[in-house]
Write the structure tokens for this entry.
Amino acid sequence: SVFPLQATPPKMWPLVLALFAAYSSASFCDGSGWSVDFVDEFNGNTLNTSSWSVKLGAGNSYCRSASCTAEDVYLEDGALVLRTRRSSTNSSAFTSGGVDTRSKHAWHHGPEPFRACIAAQLPGSETPSQSQGVWPAHWMMPDSGACDPDQGEMDILEMINGDGLAQSTYHWQSDYPAANCTYPKDHQQVTASRGLPVGWNSTFHEYAVERGPSHVAFAVDGRVILNQSSSGGKLLLWDEPWFLILNSALGGPWPGEPSADTVLPVYHRIDYVRVVRRTQEGR
């Protein structure tokens, strides 16, 4: 974790507490009635590979127009860092980083919902032209390996081009399982966004999802911005375990490609990942 108070000199405590309060006091994963299922605060020097796999290679949805490399995924000062940069050998080529918990950790709602909370300092500049193409994301996919998004996709956080909007979306295919791997045919989604305060790229904020048997909800800094139920056929919620993805894409169809004005390198810093589950007492 970025802010381990017991390891901080007392004279620095007021500053640390002020920074910590920016997101921790409103954590969506705190409170009675919820039990901890998983936590990684990214302390130490190396990524815990029993929990996380590092994405490698080009042409994937984690890094888009950049190549995912192991060198762009590292721990520093109590945070996981996903770095996006121009190639050291080719200024028109890019590298970036992404990790996931697929086949290592996946969460199923069971009779009670779970929540996944990620505290992060997002990459990019508050001047949109300098962040053209920058696309950080925290999202969850079914561990079944179904085509995206046949059995759903939970986008906990996405921001494009440094626009300051934290966007959360649930995607699904209305024709599945009658037809599969047909995206974008019959693609459906519900989405919401929240504008982040000035300085979002230099402070940590928490982005979270709650998934239950019949609903999905998203929150920013502990405040729910979308709560959608499957009642009345409004959306399809498949009964599958979900794995977590953290990545920094560059380019792609939504933000567009990086330009000569895009300032790199940029750093996507994740302070913690916490997953909690509601207990019977928390009902």
